[in-house]
Design goal:
- The complex is a heterodimer of chains A (131) and B (249).
- Chain A has three helices and five strands, in the order E-H-H-E-E-H-E-E.
- Chain A is of the alpha+beta class and 131 residues long.
- Chain A has a five-stranded antiparallel beta sheet with strand order 1-2-3-5-4, with helices on one face.
- In chain A, strand 4 and strand 5 form a beta hairpin.
- In chain A, helix 1 runs antiparallel to helix 2 and helix 2 (41-61) runs antiparallel to helix 3 (97-106).
- The longest helix of chain A is centred in the middle third of the chain and has 21 residues, at 41-61.
- Chain B has 249 residues and is mainly alpha-helical.
- The longest helix of chain B is centred in the C-terminal third of the chain and has 22 residues, at 223-244.
- Chain B is elongated and about 65 Å long.
- The chains are: A alpha+beta (131), B mainly alpha (249).
- The A-B interface holds A 4, 20-22, 24-25, 27-28, 31-32, 34-35, 38-45, 48-49, 52-53, 56, 60-61, 94-95, 97-98, 100-102, 104-106, 129-130 and B 99-100, 104-105, 122, 126, 131-136, 138, 146-147, 149-151, 153-154, 157-158, 181-183, 186-187, 190, 205-207, 209, 211-213, 223, 227, 230-231, 234, 237-238, 241-242, 245, 249.
């Protein structure tokens, strides 16, 4: 049987209105993908926290437009990338400090960027506990 | 000399003076004193939602956040009674809590029912395997689908702790450890708003970078409980951050 951690999944793209309660939809989707890829419960919890953080930060700082969230797994790394059209996104806003701290705690890498007039936040969680 | 709140007849006078001093000097200890003095406003507000299925203690905590916000925003020089100003702020905080923190998306009966068993299996497998289990391993152990496990685990996150554990251990101070983090003053100030247990958990997770399972071992609780406290603490920090932000964001 193939090792699920060697599998490549996605990208899976979900576009939602910026409503905080919809984070559960994203968390469930992320959990499903993480399970398919063989991530552990611990790692999946980290992934879900990262997904929530990306989602809520884009709602609070993204300008009110629908938000696109993309999930993928490649090379044992789960990637979540959220983006919303908003040229006024302030990547240095002090309120993003919490987001940065949380993402730094649960993710291998993360980024908060303004790319082509889109607010973009991404986070990567690497599988580590199973060899 | 500071007026004392123990003089019943002078309560209103004390409150007015205290609010004026707080508006001028923004002394956090004075804010706490005012909050204690007016905590009945929070209790009264929470009581109005007491039949909505949420633990009353949680409602009081939410209402107290609204009360603190009211104290922060109140202008005592406008001649408006504090109670008249604080009540809608408290009610707004409670309504927002129900909007954002209760089951915003339907959680199935099955997920709610499976939640305790999935948690137990997760803990048992963690001990057996000496690592966090995969979803598939839990599903296999319980002879249920992976989807059911995922739903039950997510129900943990959607489900707030009944009581936020305030007991216990002394949490480490974090200021010196936050040096490497951007905006450390913001984070340190936010963490200081949490209860010691929650502050300790966030400290261990985000600054010591321990896993939820490792934290659970260290503080003597379950991984699931740690996960729940992280989610609720982050929500609380976010709320503080939002309240501190200027209206124009």
């Amino acid at each position: 049987m193939a090792d699920p951690l060697n599998s490549m999944i996605g990208p899976v793209l979900i576009r939602l209105p910026p409503t905080p309660a919809l984070s559960r939809v994203l968390r469930l989707a992320a959990s499903g993908i993480a399970a398919m890829a063989g991530f552990t419960v611990d790692e999946t919890e980290d992934i879900k926290i990262a997904v929530s953080e990306v989602w809520l930060a884009l709602i609070e700082h993204g300008g009110g437009e629908p938000i696109e969230v993309q999930f993928s797994v490649q090379d044992h790394v789960f990637m979540v990338r959220g983006q919303a059209a908003f040229g006024g996104f302030d990547v240095d806003h002090p309120d993003l400090a919490l987001c940065r701290t949380v993402l730094a705690g649960v993710c291998t890498q993360h980024g908060i960027e303004l790319v082509d007039d889109h607010a973009q936040i991404w986070a990567a969680v690497a599988h580590a506990s199973i060899t | 000399m500071n007026p004392t709140r123990h003089q019943t007849d002078g309560d209103e006078v004390w409150l007015q003076e205290a609010l004026q001093r707080y508006a001028t000097y923004r002394d956090k200890s004075l804010r706490d004193e005012i909050a204690e003095h007016t905590s009945w406003l929070a209790t009264r507000g929470a009581r109005r939602f007491a039949d909505c299925g949420e633990p009353f203690d949680d409602l009081v905590q939410v209402a107290r956040i609204g009360l603190l916000n009211a104290i922060d925003r109140f202008d005592p020089f406008q001649g408006v009674p504090f109670g008249a100003y604080a009540t809608p702020t408290i009610m707004g905080e409670l309504r927002r809590y129900f909007r954002d923190h209760t089951w915003g998306v339907h959680v199935s009966r099955r997920a709610k029912d499976l939640r305790p068993a999935v948690n137990a299996a997760t803990e048992a497998l963690s001990k057996e395997l000496q690592r966090s289990p995969r979803i598939a391993e839990i599903a296999e152990r319980m002879r249920i689908s992976e989807e059911a496990v995922i739903e039950a685990l997510e129900a943990n996150s959607a489900y707030r702790p009944h009581t936020l554990d305030m007991s216990g251990r002394t949490a480490p101070r974090v200021e010196s450890d936050v040096d490497s983090v951007l905006n450390r003053e913001v984070i340190a100030r936010l963490l200081d708003t949490l209860r010691p247990r929650e502050r300790q958990i966030l400290y261990l997770r985000y600054f010591e970078e321990l896993s939820q399972a490792q934290i659970a071992d260290q503080i003597g609780t379950s991984q699931v409980h740690v996960g729940r406290l992280i989610v609720s603490s982050l929500a609380e920090l976010r709320e503080h951050l939002r309240e501190e932000s200027p209206p124009d964001g």
